[in-house]
Design a protein that fits this description.
The protein is built from 15 helices and 2 strands. By secondary structure, it is mainly α. Helix 4 packs across helix 10 (about 130-145), helix 10 (about 130-145) runs parallel beside helix 12 and helix 12 packs antiparallel against helix 13 (about 190-225). The chain is globular. One of its GO terms (cellular component) is plasma membrane.
Length: about 300
């Protein structure tokens, strides 16, 4: 297990030995502290801590944050103290673990609390360090991926909080892929039958949609090059939750959703962005009543 984690982490300033020592000590303390604890699924609790650290490594976080990810539940769920963590790993790791512990104590009991405009300020003020929020995202994402063994009532509470609090927060922080997965997992938990039906429809149409994106992007890239506009053109199928939301808002079936795809054109300057929009409109006829200016 440790070898897999170590292989994903980039050493700080090339200091392989000190980075490996930090992670190994955090790995050992987390494993010892959670010894004998099991999750509802019956697997050792430490596996959750390990998977949180793997997510952080996949997101290219620094070794300090990954070490804190391994230890993120030790203060709350074991006899380990913040003082012990500070003595063994330093103030920075201790600060991050304490921040995650404080975040875990925030409960959003009402819809108004979950949707309040200041919830982001509340979480960030408690966290004080953006890395605390990122560790919490990894914690919540793994918990949502493994939520099935929990009682149904608790599943719903966690899924609603994920949908209303953590997914919008990920969006605010520009972490789109985390947002999409959190939303999809929340929908899967809250509306399992609708999710499975929609997921099958999306999966069955995916090859066709991907081919369509390629065909759409090709002439756009050619024209951008002709006008010497430097741009990054990225196409992707939309998430299950995004499509579900459109169906709910418009009160239509899956077959009546036309914007199942998204293409993003990123330029260096706003004027080039409008020029790129003009190129798209030269090639493809816009539907005026559906046009929105996102620039």
């Amino acid at each position: 297990m440790f070898r897999t984690l170590r292989g994903k982490v980039n050493p700080v300033n090339g200091e392989q030995e000190s980075t490996e020592s930090l992670l190994w000590r955090a790995f050992q303390l987390a494993e010892i502290s959670h010894a004998g604890q099991l999750r509802k699924s019956g697997v050792p609790y430490f596996e959750h801590c390990y998977n949180v650290a793997l997510l952080l490594a996949d997101w290219q976080m620094d070794p300090i944050t990954i070490a804190a990810g391994l230890l993120h539940d030790t203060i709350e769920d074991t006899a380990c103290t913040s003082q012990l963590i500070k003595e063994q790993f330093g103030a920075e790791v201790s600060h991050l673990v304490e921040g995650v512990t404080k975040l875990s104590g925030i409960k959003f009991r009402t819809k108004a609390e979950r949707q309040a405009e200041n919830y982001m300020k509340l979480l960030l003020s408690v966290a004080k360090d953006i890395r605390v929020i990122i560790i919490k995202f990894a914690d919540r994402l793994h918990n949502m991926r493994t939520i099935e063994p929990l009682p149904r009532v608790k599943q719903r509470r966690i899924a609603i909080e994920t949908r209303d609090v953590y997914a919008p927060l990920a969006h605010r922080l520009g972490m789109a892929r985390i947002k999409w997965e959190l939303e999809d997992l929340a929908l899967k938990t809250l509306e399992p039958e609708k999710f499975e039906e929609l997921f099958r429809n999306i999966r069955d149409s995916l090859p066709e949609r991907e081919r369509y994106i390629e065909e759409f992007v090709r002439p756009v890239k050619k024209e951008l090059a002709t006008y010497h506009i430097r741009a990054k053109v990225v196409g992707r199928p939309k998430s299950t939750y995004s499509i579900y939301g459109k169906m709910q808002r418009r009160r239509v079936d899956f077959e009546e959703i036309y914007d199942l795809l998204a293409v993003r054109i990123i330029t260096d300057r706003p004027d080039e962005c409008y020029a790129a929009l003009g190129i798209v409109h030269q090639i493809y006829t816009p539907i005026q009543e559906r046009f929105k200016d996102f620039i």
